[in-house]
Amino acid sequence: MIIVTGANGQLGRLVVEQLLRHVPAEQIGASVRDVNKAAELMERGVRVRSGDYNDAASLAHAFEGASQVFLVSSNSSGESAVQQHRTAIEAAKKAGASRIVYTSQMGASPNSYFPPMVDHAATEALLEDSGMAYVSLRNGFYADSALMLLGDALRTGELAVPEDGPVAWTSHGDLAEAAAVALLDARIRGVTPVLTGSEAIDLEGIAAMAAGLLGRPVRRTVIADDEYRAGLIARGLPEERADMFAGLYRASRRGEFARTDSTLARLLGRPTAPFRDTLKRAIDCLPRG
């Protein structure tokens, strides 16, 4: 049985949907924190069990009978995230799973300015030390994250954030399809090449693209890192989270997320989704008038 963790989340749910196209529902298990939110999957024959990265006993139950575990990275950060991943890896091994497929990131490095990339690097080391077969998917930066960075700019026409650099924005749908390919092809193993869309775009380019789609200006201005961080804290964001977001800009302008690669398109057997499609969907959902 293939167990998909985080199956109520955006990526996890899409991976389940991809797997359902290729394997019977009874061969798929969903590990979720809230089973009530996965009722539709249960109705389709997917085994749904409660699993929490902070609770090894719950994971032992959720992973029972696993041949593979799709390990979606934690939303936590720092040692908390790494410990959660350690717990999940150990639970998968004890459950008898022969392979883990993990959602890493293209910028994974112990030296990254963006703290989650340090966590990914530490988790890849755990996987290497586990003795299990594994795949570490070096996913491109989620295209939806660019919408978060845009904030209210699509409405106000003003995007004031620190200096950034090009980012290889990549769609959740493409990455979910690639994850399913990796789960179904045992020949894929180890740390993958970066799995990205075909273009790397900075926020100035995104602002220009948005302006074209909106039919009105979107002005991108650069502010100092400290001013940006202070603004986040003033809006109620904890200092640790503010530091993380500031680190994202430092990392991007150092080029940590700028590399593109054709591996994802080859896995999919088609071109990757352009970032413009993600942006257009967001703009189409804006209130009119």
Automatic annotation (TrEMBL):
Domain of life: Bacteria
InterPro entries referenced in this protein's UniProt entry, alphabetically: NAD(P)-bd_dom, NAD(P)-bd_dom_sf, NmrA-type_oxidoreductase
Boundaries of every NAD(P)-binding domain copy: 6-145
Listed Gene3D superfamilies: NAD(P)-binding Rossmann-like Domain, UDP-galactose 4-epimerase, domain 1
Protein name in the entry: Uncharacterized protein YbjT (DUF2867 family)
Origin species: Paenibacillus methanolicus
